[in-house]
């Protein structure tokens, strides 16, 4: 009964006609395995939705479905409407024009997302040239340096010529963010963007994302297994368990009054300064 109520609430969210992104009854299956089971949510312009859940709950499959980056063997159903347009109905060339320009993604691990044998400035420039082939090389370079400055990288004229291994983990994450924002997308998907970072750098990256959101009016789908991180950036939270969204709520309400047993377990599993260390965490 609790799960049915959550699913009905999710559908109500998705039918908001003012939404930038509307996901309705999305399913993703790999062979006989259903990774995403009829989920619905919406993201308004300028809003951040946190999508949380344990590993294997279907969060990343959801984000890759929105970008249509799932492998060929995946079966996707439902509707993905972006600005009122059904992304699943687009031809691949039309989707390619939107991917990276109107919808961009920050991937989880910078060292696998970045090309190790290509200067970072050239990698950012590729994204600009792919969508703006009419721009002169000087203009493209100017956009690259501007994006690098926006994400707080130092000495951008020189560092644009450096390779990924010459940057720290936090700086590599900033490079991925620069690649994502350089074309001024309307929706930014951030898939566990702070997982591999220490807490100090994590706080800096979260602060950067919030600032970019305010400055550019970005909508964001922020994916994480960490509720504490999500609480710092999200307006609303959708909780996933085994491929289903079991609860959606505004971030403050979800932390004050979690309705679903799984959400309560997630909250109880996070240690605090007052946690009794002689007792096991919730599981």
Structural description of this entry:
With 283 residues, the chain is of the alpha/beta class. The protein is 41% helix and 24% strand. It has twelve helices and ten strands. It has helices at residues 2-14, 59-67, 92-98, 110-113, 120-131, 137-150, 156-159, 169-181, 199-216, 227-233, 251-256, 261-268; strands at 19-30, 33-44, 48-52, 74-82, 85-86, 103-106, 187-191, 219-224, 236-241, 244-250. The strands form two sheets. Strands 6-7-8-3-9-10 form a six-stranded mixed β-sheet, with helices on both faces. Helix 5 packs across helix 6, helix 6 (137-150) crosses helix 8 (169-181) and helix 8 (169-181) runs parallel beside helix 9 (199-216). The chain is globular, with a radius of gyration of 19 Å. Mean pLDDT is 88; it is low at 1-17.
Main features:
disordered N terminus; four-stranded antiparallel sheet; alpha/beta; 41% helix; globular; six-stranded mixed sheet
Write the layout of secondary structure elements.
Elements (H helix, E strand, L loop, with lengths): L1 H13 L4 E12 L2 E12 L3 E5 L6 H9 L6 E9 L2 E2 L5 H7 L4 E4 L3 H4 L6 H12 L5 H14 L5 H4 L9 H13 L5 E5 L7 H18 L2 E6 L2 H7 L2 E6 L2 E7 H6 L4 H8 L15
Parallel strand pairs: 3-8, 3-9, 6-7, 7-8
Antiparallel strand pairs: 1-2, 1-4, 4-5, 9-10
